[in-house]
Protein backbone atom coordinates (compact mmCIF):
# COMPACT_ATOMS: atom_id res chain seq x y z
CA UNK A 1 0.00 0.00 0.00
CA UNK A 2 1.52 3.33 -1.03
CA UNK A 3 -0.66 5.36 1.37
CA UNK A 4 -1.18 5.52 5.11
CA UNK A 5 -4.57 6.72 6.34
CA UNK A 6 -5.33 7.96 9.84
CA UNK A 7 -8.98 8.47 10.56
CA UNK A 8 -9.92 11.25 13.01
CA UNK A 9 -13.49 12.28 13.85
CA UNK A 10 -13.50 15.37 11.63
CA UNK A 11 -10.66 14.64 9.20
CA UNK A 12 -8.56 12.10 7.35
CA UNK A 13 -4.79 12.33 7.52
CA UNK A 14 -3.39 10.74 4.38
CA UNK A 15 0.34 10.16 4.04
CA UNK A 16 1.95 9.28 0.73
CA UNK A 17 4.20 6.34 1.51
CA UNK A 18 6.40 5.35 -1.38
CA UNK A 19 9.73 6.63 -0.07
CA UNK A 20 11.90 4.43 -2.29
CA UNK A 21 10.54 6.33 -5.31
CA UNK A 22 10.24 9.66 -3.50
CA UNK A 23 6.44 9.32 -3.48
CA UNK A 24 6.33 9.45 -7.28
CA UNK A 25 2.69 9.17 -8.28
CA UNK A 26 2.22 5.85 -10.06
CA UNK A 27 -0.96 3.98 -11.01
CA UNK A 28 -1.23 2.31 -7.56
CA UNK A 29 -0.99 5.64 -5.78
CA UNK A 30 -3.58 7.13 -8.15
CA UNK A 31 -5.95 4.24 -7.37
CA UNK A 32 -5.37 4.59 -3.62
CA UNK A 33 -6.04 8.34 -3.74
CA UNK A 34 -9.25 7.72 -5.69
CA UNK A 35 -10.35 5.47 -2.81
CA UNK A 36 -9.61 8.28 -0.36
CA UNK A 37 -11.73 10.63 -2.50
CA UNK A 38 -14.60 8.14 -2.59
CA UNK A 39 -14.56 7.97 1.24
CA UNK A 40 -14.54 11.74 1.59
CA UNK A 41 -17.30 12.18 -0.97
CA UNK A 42 -19.45 9.67 0.89
CA UNK A 43 -18.69 11.07 4.34
CA UNK A 44 -17.46 14.66 3.92
CA UNK A 45 -14.58 15.49 6.24
CA UNK A 46 -11.47 17.65 6.17
CA UNK A 47 -8.33 16.24 4.53
CA UNK A 48 -4.71 16.63 5.54
CA UNK A 49 -2.57 15.27 2.71
CA UNK A 50 1.16 14.94 3.33
CA UNK A 51 4.27 13.18 2.15
CA UNK A 52 5.38 12.87 5.79
CA UNK A 53 8.25 14.67 7.48
CA UNK A 54 11.24 12.83 6.07
CA UNK A 55 12.05 15.45 3.46
CA UNK A 56 9.85 14.58 0.48
CA UNK A 57 6.33 15.52 -0.59
CA UNK A 58 6.23 13.93 -4.04
CA UNK A 59 8.70 13.75 -6.93
CA UNK A 60 5.96 13.98 -9.52
CA UNK A 61 4.31 11.52 -11.81
CA UNK A 62 6.22 8.25 -12.05
CA UNK A 63 8.62 8.96 -14.92
CA UNK A 64 9.05 5.22 -15.58
CA UNK A 65 5.33 4.90 -16.26
CA UNK A 66 5.10 8.32 -17.93
CA UNK A 67 7.73 7.42 -20.51
CA UNK A 68 5.66 4.49 -21.73
CA UNK A 69 2.34 6.34 -21.94
CA UNK A 70 0.84 7.20 -25.31
CA UNK A 71 -1.66 9.80 -26.49
CA UNK A 72 -4.66 7.74 -25.40
CA UNK A 73 -3.21 7.56 -21.87
CA UNK A 74 -2.80 11.33 -21.93
CA UNK A 75 -6.42 11.73 -23.00
CA UNK A 76 -7.49 9.37 -20.20
CA UNK A 77 -6.48 12.19 -17.81
CA UNK A 78 -4.98 9.77 -15.28
CA UNK A 79 -3.49 12.36 -12.92
CA UNK A 80 -5.56 15.37 -13.93
CA UNK A 81 -8.86 13.59 -13.26
CA UNK A 82 -7.62 12.52 -9.83
CA UNK A 83 -6.36 16.01 -8.98
CA UNK A 84 -9.65 17.49 -10.21
CA UNK A 85 -11.50 15.06 -7.96
CA UNK A 86 -9.35 16.11 -5.00
CA UNK A 87 -10.00 19.77 -5.75
CA UNK A 88 -13.74 19.07 -5.86
CA UNK A 89 -13.84 17.27 -2.48
CA UNK A 90 -16.69 18.63 -0.41
CA UNK A 91 -14.69 19.89 2.56
CA UNK A 92 -11.47 21.95 2.73
CA UNK A 93 -8.17 20.19 2.15
CA UNK A 94 -4.66 21.09 3.32
CA UNK A 95 -1.40 19.76 1.87
CA UNK A 96 1.57 19.56 4.25
CA UNK A 97 4.83 19.64 2.33
CA UNK A 98 8.35 18.85 3.53
CA UNK A 99 11.02 18.77 0.83
CA UNK A 100 10.48 18.59 -2.91
CA UNK A 101 7.06 18.92 -4.54
CA UNK A 102 7.94 18.60 -8.21
CA UNK A 103 5.94 18.19 -11.40
CA UNK A 104 2.82 16.18 -10.63
CA UNK A 105 3.81 16.33 -6.94
CA UNK A 106 3.52 20.10 -6.98
CA UNK A 107 0.25 19.80 -8.91
CA UNK A 108 -1.05 17.40 -6.27
CA UNK A 109 -0.37 20.07 -3.66
CA UNK A 110 -2.12 22.74 -5.80
CA UNK A 111 -5.15 20.43 -6.00
CA UNK A 112 -5.54 20.95 -2.26
CA UNK A 113 -7.19 24.16 -1.10
CA UNK A 114 -4.33 25.28 1.16
CA UNK A 115 -0.64 24.50 1.63
CA UNK A 116 1.62 24.47 4.68
CA UNK A 117 5.30 23.67 4.19
CA UNK A 118 8.62 23.44 5.99
CA UNK A 119 11.53 25.79 5.39
CA UNK A 120 13.26 23.08 3.34
CA UNK A 121 10.29 22.51 1.01
CA UNK A 122 10.51 23.56 -2.62
CA UNK A 123 8.22 23.52 -5.65
CA UNK A 124 8.96 23.18 -9.35
CA UNK A 125 7.45 22.31 -12.71
CA UNK A 126 10.23 20.65 -14.70
CA UNK A 127 7.86 19.12 -17.28
CA UNK A 128 9.12 21.01 -20.33
CA UNK A 129 12.59 19.67 -19.59
CA UNK A 130 11.07 16.19 -19.90
CA UNK A 131 9.36 17.12 -23.16
CA UNK A 132 5.80 17.37 -21.86
CA UNK A 133 3.48 19.98 -20.39
CA UNK A 134 2.43 20.21 -16.78
CA UNK A 135 -0.84 18.55 -17.66
CA UNK A 136 -2.37 17.83 -14.26
CA UNK A 137 -3.52 21.25 -13.19
CA UNK A 138 -0.50 23.58 -13.10
CA UNK A 139 -1.45 25.43 -16.29
CA UNK A 140 -4.61 26.74 -14.63
CA UNK A 141 -4.13 26.32 -10.88
CA UNK A 142 -0.65 27.88 -10.76
CA UNK A 143 -1.73 31.14 -12.48
CA UNK A 144 -4.70 31.29 -10.12
CA UNK A 145 -2.32 31.03 -7.17
CA UNK A 146 0.61 33.21 -8.20
CA UNK A 147 -0.54 35.21 -11.23
CA UNK A 148 -0.10 34.55 -14.92
CA UNK A 149 3.38 35.95 -15.51
CA UNK A 150 4.95 34.21 -12.51
CA UNK A 151 3.22 30.96 -13.41
CA UNK A 152 4.45 31.18 -16.99
CA UNK A 153 8.00 31.85 -15.80
CA UNK A 154 7.88 28.80 -13.53
CA UNK A 155 6.30 26.60 -16.21
CA UNK A 156 8.69 27.78 -18.95
CA UNK A 157 11.89 27.53 -16.92
CA UNK A 158 11.22 24.78 -14.41
CA UNK A 159 12.89 27.01 -11.81
CA UNK A 160 12.48 25.80 -8.25
CA UNK A 161 10.68 27.98 -5.73
CA UNK A 162 11.90 27.71 -2.15
CA UNK A 163 9.65 28.02 0.89
CA UNK A 164 10.35 31.71 1.54
CA UNK A 165 9.49 32.64 -2.05
CA UNK A 166 6.48 30.31 -2.03
CA UNK A 167 5.11 32.17 0.99
CA UNK A 168 5.85 35.56 -0.57
CA UNK A 169 4.08 34.78 -3.86
CA UNK A 170 1.09 33.05 -2.27
CA UNK A 171 1.93 29.52 -3.31
CA UNK A 172 1.80 28.40 0.33
CA UNK A 173 -0.24 29.75 3.21
CA UNK A 174 2.17 29.05 6.06
CA UNK A 175 5.78 27.97 6.56
CA UNK A 176 7.06 26.21 9.67
CA UNK A 177 10.75 26.15 10.54
CA UNK A 178 11.22 22.51 11.46
CA UNK A 179 9.86 19.29 9.92
CA UNK A 180 8.69 18.27 13.40
CA UNK A 181 6.30 21.24 13.42
CA UNK A 182 4.75 20.52 10.02
CA UNK A 183 1.85 18.28 10.93
CA UNK A 184 0.98 20.33 14.02
CA UNK A 185 0.96 23.43 11.81
CA UNK A 186 -1.35 21.79 9.28
CA UNK A 187 -3.63 20.48 12.04
CA UNK A 188 -3.78 23.96 13.61
CA UNK A 189 -4.94 25.39 10.31
CA UNK A 190 -7.56 22.64 9.99
CA UNK A 191 -8.63 23.23 13.62
CA UNK A 192 -9.28 26.88 12.78
CA UNK A 193 -11.28 25.82 9.72
CA UNK A 194 -13.20 23.22 11.72
CA UNK A 195 -14.62 25.97 13.94
CA UNK A 196 -16.85 27.02 11.04
CA UNK A 197 -20.17 25.46 10.12
CA UNK A 198 -19.55 22.40 7.94
CA UNK A 199 -22.34 23.39 5.54
CA UNK A 200 -21.07 26.97 5.30
CA UNK A 201 -17.56 25.67 4.61
CA UNK A 202 -18.81 23.39 1.85
CA UNK A 203 -20.81 26.12 0.18
CA UNK A 204 -17.95 28.61 0.53
CA UNK A 205 -15.61 26.18 -1.20
CA UNK A 206 -18.12 25.55 -3.99
CA UNK A 207 -18.60 29.28 -4.48
CA UNK A 208 -14.87 30.12 -4.55
CA UNK A 209 -14.18 27.32 -7.02
CA UNK A 210 -17.14 28.16 -9.28
CA UNK A 211 -16.56 29.87 -12.63
CA UNK A 212 -16.83 33.67 -12.54
CA UNK A 213 -20.08 33.53 -14.54
CA UNK A 214 -21.72 31.58 -11.68
CA UNK A 215 -21.49 34.64 -9.41
CA UNK A 216 -23.45 36.15 -7.83
CA UNK A 217 -26.17 33.57 -8.50
CA UNK A 218 -24.41 30.72 -6.76
CA UNK A 219 -23.62 32.93 -3.76
CA UNK A 220 -27.24 33.98 -3.49
CA UNK A 221 -28.53 30.42 -3.58
CA UNK A 222 -25.85 29.29 -1.09
CA UNK A 223 -26.77 32.08 1.28
CA UNK A 224 -30.46 31.30 0.89
CA UNK A 225 -29.76 27.71 1.95
CA UNK A 226 -27.62 28.84 4.89
CA UNK A 227 -30.06 31.50 6.08
CA UNK A 228 -32.55 28.73 6.81
CA UNK A 229 -29.98 26.39 8.33
CA UNK A 230 -30.57 25.66 12.01
CA UNK A 231 -26.85 25.94 12.73
CA UNK A 232 -26.76 29.52 11.46
CA UNK A 233 -29.52 30.47 13.94
CA UNK A 234 -27.72 28.68 16.77
CA UNK A 235 -24.35 30.27 16.01
CA UNK A 236 -25.78 33.78 15.70
CA UNK A 237 -27.90 33.38 18.84
CA UNK A 238 -24.82 32.18 20.71
CA UNK A 239 -22.99 35.34 19.63
CA UNK A 240 -25.85 37.65 20.63
CA UNK A 241 -26.41 35.94 24.00
CA UNK A 242 -22.70 36.04 24.78
CA UNK A 243 -22.82 39.83 24.48
CA UNK A 244 -25.58 40.00 27.10
CA UNK A 245 -23.74 37.97 29.80
N1 LIG B 1 9.38 8.98 -11.15
C1 LIG B 1 9.91 7.78 -10.97
N2 LIG B 1 10.93 7.53 -10.12
C2 LIG B 1 11.40 8.57 -9.43
C3 LIG B 1 10.90 9.88 -9.57
C4 LIG B 1 9.84 10.07 -10.48
N3 LIG B 1 9.26 11.25 -10.68
N4 LIG B 1 11.61 10.70 -8.75
C5 LIG B 1 12.50 9.93 -8.12
N5 LIG B 1 12.39 8.64 -8.53
C6 LIG B 1 13.18 7.49 -8.12
C7 LIG B 1 14.59 7.54 -8.67
O1 LIG B 1 14.64 7.04 -10.00
C8 LIG B 1 15.30 6.66 -7.67
O2 LIG B 1 14.99 5.33 -7.98
P1 LIG B 1 16.13 4.17 -7.87
O3 LIG B 1 16.56 4.20 -6.44
O4 LIG B 1 15.41 2.94 -8.27
O5 LIG B 1 17.22 4.60 -8.80
C9 LIG B 1 14.60 6.99 -6.36
O6 LIG B 1 13.34 7.52 -6.72
C10 LIG B 1 15.33 8.00 -5.55
O7 LIG B 1 15.53 9.16 -6.36
P2 LIG B 1 16.81 10.10 -6.22
O8 LIG B 1 16.82 11.03 -7.38
O9 LIG B 1 18.03 9.28 -5.99
O10 LIG B 1 16.44 10.85 -4.85
P3 LIG B 1 17.00 12.24 -4.29
O11 LIG B 1 16.51 12.30 -2.89
O12 LIG B 1 18.45 12.40 -4.58
O13 LIG B 1 16.24 13.36 -5.16
C11 LIG B 1 14.33 14.37 -6.20
C12 LIG B 1 14.85 13.56 -5.01
C13 LIG B 1 12.82 14.42 -6.05
C14 LIG B 1 14.91 15.80 -6.16
C15 LIG B 1 14.73 13.71 -7.54
O14 LIG B 1 14.41 12.33 -7.44
C16 LIG B 1 14.05 14.26 -8.75
O15 LIG B 1 14.42 15.30 -9.25
N6 LIG B 1 13.04 13.53 -9.27
C17 LIG B 1 12.37 13.83 -10.51
C18 LIG B 1 11.50 15.07 -10.39
C19 LIG B 1 10.80 15.37 -11.70
O16 LIG B 1 11.37 15.69 -12.71
N7 LIG B 1 9.47 15.26 -11.64
C20 LIG B 1 8.64 15.59 -12.74
C21 LIG B 1 7.81 14.43 -13.13
S1 LIG B 1 6.51 14.99 -14.20
UniProtKB/TrEMBL annotation:
Q: Which InterPro entries does UniProt cross-reference here?
A: ClpP/crotonase-like_dom_sf, Enoyl-CoA_hydra/iso
Q: Per the UniProt entry, what are the Gene Ontology biological process annotations, in alphabetical order?
A: fatty acid beta-oxidation
Which residues are the signal sequence here? none
A Pfam family this protein belongs to?
ECH_1
Question: Which SUPFAM superfamilies does this chain map to?
Answer: ClpP/crotonase
Q: Gene3D superfamilies of this UniProt entry?
A: 2-enoyl-CoA Hydratase, Chain A, domain 1
Top-level taxon of origin: Bacteria
- CDD domains in UniProt: crotonase-like
Q: What is this protein called?
A: Enoyl-CoA hydratase/carnithine racemase
Gene Ontology molecular-function annotations: catalytic activity
